[in-house]
Amino acid sequence: MLMSTRSRMSRRPSRPTSGSGRRRILAGCLVLLLLAPAVSYLRALFYPGQATVSVRSVEWLRDNGGSGAIDALENWWYARHAPSGTAPDPATLPAAPETSAPGPGRPGSPASLPAPLPTLAGVPAVPGEGRWAAGRATPSGVPAIVTTFVRPDPVHPGVVAGVARFDQRLVKGRLIAGTREPDGQSWPEGGQVPPELRGGLVAAFNSGFKMVAAQGGFYADGRYARPLRDGAASLVINRDGRMSVAAWGRDTRFGPDVAAVRQNLALIVDNGVADPGLGSNAGGRWGSARNQLQYTWRSAVGTDPAGNLVYVGGNQLSLTALARALTRP
């Protein structure tokens, strides 16, 4: 006779997870979720450079999905902090250049300096406005750079823009990739002016918007970081170091003489005339909506009819005022 037996298996009911256990699990998940952004933020805070913690924090927020909120906050802030309508305090202005420098052809003498720039119509000039001062000069005594300041906003005569004019017969330009822009990759210069060029350095300035917002490309050192876009405002540097500003594809194209190109949005001045659409910024040609109305730090570069490179920059400038400062030289 065959007999079968049936074994019985007993199972104890599982104990529900305690409240403290659930909290530990949630805390662990939260730590994991916050770990990546925390590491990203710390890297932004300690990346090479001299930007303040607040600037680094704002840029980190922009890079991590907060661009729209930052733009809205900036528009709200700057719309409520317009510059005053009074003339600037003379004590805050650059010292008026000397007019008694000895000898024609000497740096700073009237014979070696350009004619003064015109001041705003109907607005009394302040000391030194539009009058050039000599910067670094060549052994022949001709200044390679001259500087002055203008007031480009007739509604807000306290707004001041600095102007620097570079004689391109005496200077050469070079585009140097930064530590994070255009792409954070390794470039020959390591984000610095090469030591062998520092003795002859006349000036240095940033090259514009971050690539994510520039609506254009970057070419230097024989390689592209971003493709070049037709129609974009482009600073073009030839192999002889000569710089020009042009609409890419219309005024200039890539060729064997091109050493570097940096593109930024659209031209604000074309053939010496400010673009009539600056006040409306239709289609976001010059950045986010209403950016053109912000009274903030701005800078621009262009060339004058004689081929000199002109750089302008200042605080509390609207986009229209920036263009007006660039057309004054």
Task: Report on this structure.
- There is one protein chain.
- By secondary structure, this protein is of the alpha+beta class.
- It has two domains: 24-79, no CATH class; 110-327, no CATH class.
- The protein has four helices and twelve strands, in the order ααβββαβββββββββα.
- The chain has helices at residues 19-46, 53-79, 211-214, 319-327; strands spanning 133-134, 145-150, 161-166, 218-220, 223-226, 233-238, 243-247, 258-263, 269-270, 273-274, 296-303, 309-317.
- It has a five-stranded antiparallel sheet with strand order 1-2-3-12-11. A five-stranded antiparallel sheet has the order 5-4-8-6-7, with no helix packed on it. A two-stranded antiparallel ribbon has the order 9-10.
- Strand 9 (269-270) and strand 10 form a beta hairpin.
- Helix 1 (19-46) crosses helix 2.
- The termini are far apart.
